[in-house]
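**Folding the chain**
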Amino acid sequence: MNTSSRALIGITAATLLTMAAVPASAASAASAASAAAGASAAAQPVAASDELDAGSGRAGQAAAAPPAWGPYYSPGAKRAKTLGTITATGEDHEVIPSAATLTVSGTISDLTRASSPCGWAVFNIATVNPAGNKVTWKRHHERTCAHRTPKKFSFTNHRVYQVELKVCAERRAGEPSIQCTADNPAWKRIYLSPHRSA
């Protein structure tokens, strides 16, 4: 992602932060409506399918699975592969358009037969500061050099606005190369925080 694209994302996020401010009267009305809806729901009888299963302690209805991303492959000969899920919590976008906590989980696989190349999953993460007026980018990477043995990974960030991904197959090293992290081919966006305008 080039500098102008990052600047545009930063400006967009700042605009959304400004637009997301809700007048106090509207917030009070929304809070009252939410409380009324909660009271109405509490008065409803609980269906047998909604009750906890005493033996397992799990709800009768299945919980929704976290959104999946991938599979994505390294460009060209598809010598590396990654896929996984994203779990976002605290997506209350009335004030700041970001997930309070975002966990990216998945696997990275080296599909080459040679011993020197490795599979890389490189993530660009845009986070919003606590004041909600600045976007900062940070990078996280996962690597495996074990041929066809997927490596599991999971990492968590806070106040996440956007996550991008690149997959590369290249030499064993402590960090991915500049060729891997350059803008060509383009980064894949795997998460963008939804937002509501006032």
Summary: Residues 16-61 have pLDDT under 50 and may be disordered. The chain has one domain: 3-25+69-192.
